Amino acid sequence: MRRPFVLGLTGSIGMGKSAVAEMMREAGVPVFDADAQVHRLQGPGGALLPAIEAAFPGTTGPAGVDRGKLGALVFGDKAALTRLERIVHPAVAAARESFLIEHGGQPLVVFDIPLLFEKGHAAGLDAVAVVSAPAAVQRARVLARPGMTPEKFAQILALQVPDAEKRARADHVIDTGVTIAQTRAMVNDLVSLLREKNPRG
Ligand SMILES: CC(C)(COP(=O)(O)OP(=O)(O)OC[C@H]1O[C@@H](n2cnc3c(N)ncnc32)[C@H](O)[C@@H]1O)[C@@H](O)C(=O)NCCC(=O)NCCS
Ligand SMILES: Nc1ncnc2c1ncn2[C@@H]1O[C@H](COP(=O)(O)OP(=O)(O)OP(=O)(O)O)[C@@H](O)[C@H]1O
């Protein structure tokens, strides 16, 4: 069966990954949003609620997972985070497979995976694009968010694979330290290139 070319899309906090994913959608590319999928699976009536409740009693309810409560249990406890990941990641992988089947007739699909390098999610991807901007631009964007502090920003950065390493490991780098129009042109060029070059398309 024909299979689309699968482009993984990632980037560190504040680099503009969401904006680039939206540009991809506007270019007509189906985009699988891993984060949104996790939220659905953990949301009201979500398929993962029974397994999460069994492993972490008291962390779920009619509104779904209490993310604050569960986060407090797993962030800072490696074994607990691993237990949670063993519940969440297979379900996300299954959703990705369904997405691929649903969009099997497309030449190109995008998997938007925030923790692509951190969690070793590169299997099954034909190429990886990293969204990147200069550190000063990233810092200014993140610190402009409500409730963000330099300390929180530093903590999050410490958990992420450094931008320089992501860029070095990427097949494509999308620069968002430029104008929106320039980034959009880069996105459209990349989409055209991958659609044309897709050996399976
Ligand atoms: C524990 C949960 C419920 C907390 O949710 P909450 O909305 O409070 O935080 P959010 O998801 O926005 O994450 C906060 C920060 O932690 C990082 N983070 C989230 N999950 C992980 C993880 N498994 N390993 C390392 N960092 C992580 C995120 O990149 C982000 O920077 C949630 O993070 C979760 O279920 N994580 C495990 C599933 C997972 O790995 N998700 C990543 C996408 S597949
Ligand atoms: N050239 C550009 N390309 C993309 N975004 C840009 C550009 N110039 C400015 N921006 C702005 O930068 C911001 C990037 O934030 P965005 O939330 O998309 O980052 P993110 O990487 O998705 O963050 P996170 O991964 O933490 O969710 C947006 O508000 C976007 O409008």
Automatic annotation (TrEMBL):
GO terms for molecular function: dephospho-CoA kinase activity. Its EC number is 2.7.1.24. It comes from the Bacteria. It catalyses: 3'-dephospho-CoA + ATP = ADP + CoA + H(+). ATP binds at G14, M15, G16, K17, S18, A19. It is found in: Cytoplasm. Keywords: ATP-binding, Coenzyme A biosynthesis, Cytoplasm, Kinase, Nucleotide-binding, Transferase. Pfam families: CoaE. Its main location: cytoplasm. It is an enzyme of class 2 (transferase). Catalyzes the phosphorylation of the 3'-hydroxyl group of dephosphocoenzyme A to form coenzyme A. This is Dephospho-CoA kinase. The lineage of its organism: Bacteria, Pseudomonadati, Pseudomonadota, Alphaproteobacteria, Sphingomonadales. The gene is coaE.
